[in-house]
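Ticket #4471: structure export looks truncated?
Reporter: QA, pipeline team
Priority: medium

Steps to reproduce: submit the single chain below to the structure queue and open the exported record.
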Amino acid sequence: MVFVRFIPPKSLCLLLFLFILFKYPAYSQSGNLKDQLLQFQSSADSSIKTHPAEKLYLQFDKPYYAVGDTIWFKAYLFHAPTMSLSAKSGIMYVDIANDSDVVVKQYRLPVKEGLTWGNLSLSDFPSGNYTLRAYTTWMRNFDPNGFFYKRFVVADDHEQTWLANSETTSTIVNGKLQANVKLLLSDMNKTAIANKALQLQVMAGNHHLYKQQVQTDEKGLLDVNFTVPDKATGLKLIAEDKQGGNKITIPVNLNRAEHADIQFLPEGGNLVAGLPAHIGFKAISEDGKGITVSGEILDHNQKQVASFSSLHLGMGSFDLNIAPGEIYKAKINLPGGIVKEYPLPAIKSTGTVLSIINPFDKDSVTVSLAATNDLVQSGESYFLIGKARGIICYAAVLNFKEGTVKRKIAKSLFPSGITHFILANTKGQPLNERLAFIDHHDNLNIETITAKSEYATRDSVAVHIAVTDNTGKPIAGNFSLAVTDDAQVKQDTLNSENIITRMLLTGDLKGYIEKPGYYLQTKSSQAWQALDNLLLTQGWVNYDWQADKDHPAFAAENEFEVKGQVQNGFNGSVKATRVTLLSKSPLFAKDMLTDNDGRFVFSNFPEIDTPAFVIKAVNRHDKSFNVGIVMDDVKPPMFAMAAGPDIQPWYLSSDTALLNTAKNNRTRIEQEYLAPNGHLLKEVTVKGQKIVKGSQNLNGPGNADLVFDEKDLEKAGKKTWLQLFEQKIKGFREGARFKYYEDYFIDDEPIKIIIDGIGYSPIGIYYFRDYFNAVTDYLRYRSVEEIKGIEVNASFKYNVKYRARFSPSDATIYAFIEVTTLSGRGPRIDNTPGMYLYKPLALSYPKQFYKPRYALNDTFKHLPDTRSTIDWEPNVITNKNGQATISFYTADKPTIYTLIIEGSDGNGNIGYKMERITISKQKPDTKL
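Actual output as written to the record:
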C-alpha cells in the first residue's frame, strides 16, 4: 500500500508531504498509481494556491433591532485554507432583503487586511423580518452557500400596538382540513384586549378566504375555526378594530405531524446489498425545526430488524445489515401519536461503503471500507483521501483483496473543524463521502476581568481583556466586543452563531443548522454524538475551485475603482483615446488614455458620500462623435432565500426583552428632540414641494401623489427601476390582472408607465400573457442612474388628465407613473455619445459608537438612559502581552449585562467568550 500524508500548517507555503511504502505484498502497487495520486494532490495543491476561497463572519451588537435603531457590526474575512485573515479582497458587499426576498438596501465597504466594521441605520426600515447577506466579489466564484447570512427582526411598538399569542391545531373533518386558531390579544403593557368587536379575515396569500365579525372574551381570547382549501399557502389571520384603527396579522402555521419531512441518509452515500450500513436520519416539521421521533425498521416480512430514536433536534442514527434482495421501510412514531411508514433508500446490488468511528476522547479516527464480492475479486485499486479546508491532509492507495479495509488515521494530521473523507476510483471520481469533526481544543482563550463583581447604575466599568493560545502564550490579535442589557436583549448562545461555530462548523454546511451553539459549546458525549449525526445528515459547502474553470468569472476587488471600455459605433474597442472623469462633490477630475483594448481604470478616490461622476471620452480628433462608454458594472447576485424556518413577526414573540427594546428605542429617538433643559422641542414641519426639472407631468412638475426628485434618486443608490418601484412606491405589487395573466399594480389599480411624456408599451407583444414578462424585463434592465425624477399619479385628482390622454376609451382606472429621464428621449434611454453619468454604489465608512460619559455637571444627567447596546467596540487590539482594556458607563436600571467578545490573531486562530456583569442599585464609587 502507498500511504501519502500531507500536514496542514498555519501557512500554506509550509505544506509538506511524506510517502511511506508498506512492504506487504498484498498492497504493492504500480508506480503509475503513485504518480496518479501525486498528480491528484499536485492539482489540488495548485488550485488552492492560485484560487483560494474566502470565508466570512460578521459579529453584530445584538440579534434584533427596533425601528430607528442602528446595526453595529464587525466583519472578519478569512483565507479559507489557513484561516488567516485574507488579503485578497478589499471590498465587501452587504445586501438587506425584506421578507419577500426583495433587496431593499445595498452597501459596499472597504476591507483592509481581512477586517472591516461599520453601522447600518434602520431609520428608513419599517418593522418586519429581514435577511442580511454579506460576500465579496471573489466569493461569487465558489458555492453561493458560502455567503454569510443573518436573519433579524425590526420591531416598532408605534406601528403595531397589539401583541398576540397564538396556537394552531388542525383536524380532518369529512375529508376537509379544519384549522383551529386560538388568539390571545393584549396591548403593549400586556393588558388584555377584552370584549372587543373585531373584523376577522382569513387570507391565503393575497386571496380572501373568509370574513366575519367576532368579539374577544374578557381575557382577550379569540377561538377561530375555518376550512383550509386544498393547496392553500401563505395562510394568515387579520384581526382589525375598525373603530380604534388597530390591526394585527397572524401567520397560520399548521405544522401537521403527518406532513413532517423524514430523511434517511446512509453513511457514505448508499445502501449496498450484503454490506453493513450506518444510517442517519433527520425529522423536520412543517415549520422547519427538528422534532422528536422514534420507530423501527421492518423487512418485507414485517419483521423488525432495527429500532431507532432521535437524539437531538430530530436527528439520530442506527446500524443495519443490508440483506440482498430485501426492501426495508421505517415505521415511525410522530408527535401527537401519529404513526407513518417511510421507505428506506433503494439498495444497490454492487458498490462500496465507507464508515467513520470518531471517538470524542481518542486521538485517531477509524475509517472502515468494504466492497461487494465482484469488486473484491476485480482487484481494482482506490484512493482514500482526507481533506480539510480544501487541503489534502491524507491520501492512500488501497484495494479490497483482503476484504474489509480499516485504517486508523491520526487526528493530528487535520486542523480543527470539518474533515471530508472520500473514497474515489483511480480516475478521481468520488464513490463514497463522509464528514467528520476534528477538535484539538486549540481556539484562543479569552479572559475578561472587572474590578468588582457588581456595579451601580451610571457607574464606570473597565474591562481588562487577556488572550492566550491553548499553550498559555499571550496573543496579539484583533477583536470586537458588544455589551448588551439582558432586560432588552436576549443573547441566546445555543441558537446563535459565533465566530467558532461559523468558521469550524456551519460555514462548511449547507442549509439551516438549528441551535448551532449546542454542538461546540456543550462538552458532553451526547453533544459529540449529536454533532456526528448532524454531519451524517447535512450537505456540505464546496470551497474547491472547479476544475473546468481556467479563469475566475469574478476578479477579486482590491479597492474601489471606476472601470469601463470606450467603443466605436461598431462595438469595437477604441485604444489610446482620452477619458476624463469629473466629480462635482467633492470637486476633482481625473483623466487617462485607454489601453490597447480600449479599457480605462480610475482608482485612488477620496472618501465620497454620494459618488456621481461624469465620464467623457473623445476620439483622436478631440470629438465625442462615434464613441460610446460601456461601464464595468457587475450586477449583484440574485437574492436566494436564507435556509431555515420563517421568523415570526416580533409582536407574536413571548420575548419580553424584544418588547422592551421596541419601547425603549422609541424613548431614545424622542430624546433626540430634547433641548438641553430637557423640555421637548416643538416639532416644526417644513414642507416644500418637490420639483422634477424637465418633467412632462400633465398636472405640472411636482403635482403628484408621490414625487422623487434627483436627491431622492441619488440616495437610492444602485438599483433597477423595478427595485425602486417595489421599495419606494407604497402599494406597488404584482398580481392577477385577469384570471391567468399577471400585471403590476399600485394597490388595486394596474399601472401605466409614462416616460418623458410618452406612454411605454413593449414592442412586438401580441398576447397579454407576454406583456407582463416584457415589462418586467424592461424595469429590471433600466437603472435608476438614467432618471432624474418619478411622479406617481394614482388618485383621481392627479390621474384624470392622464386617463383622458393615455386611456380615453378604456374603462379601467389606472395609476400612472411618470418617469423623467436624463436624456429626455422617452422609453428609449441611451447615454449621450461619448459621455456617461455614473453613480456607483458608495463605500460605507463607519461612524463612532456613542456612549455617555456621566459626570456631576452632566447637562443630560436627568434624562433616562435606555440603551439596549451599552457598548460596542469594533476594534479591540491586544498587545504583545495579549492584553487590552475597554471602558463604558452603565445605564439606569439594575439588570445583567452580557458581554461578548470574539476575533482572530490573523494567523489562523480564533476565539469567543461570553461574560455577564451584574448592575445593582448601589451608589457608584468610581468615575472614569
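Status: closed, not a bug. The export was complete when the record was re-opened. Leaving a note from the reviewer for reference: The CA atoms of residues 569 and 626 lie 5 Å apart.
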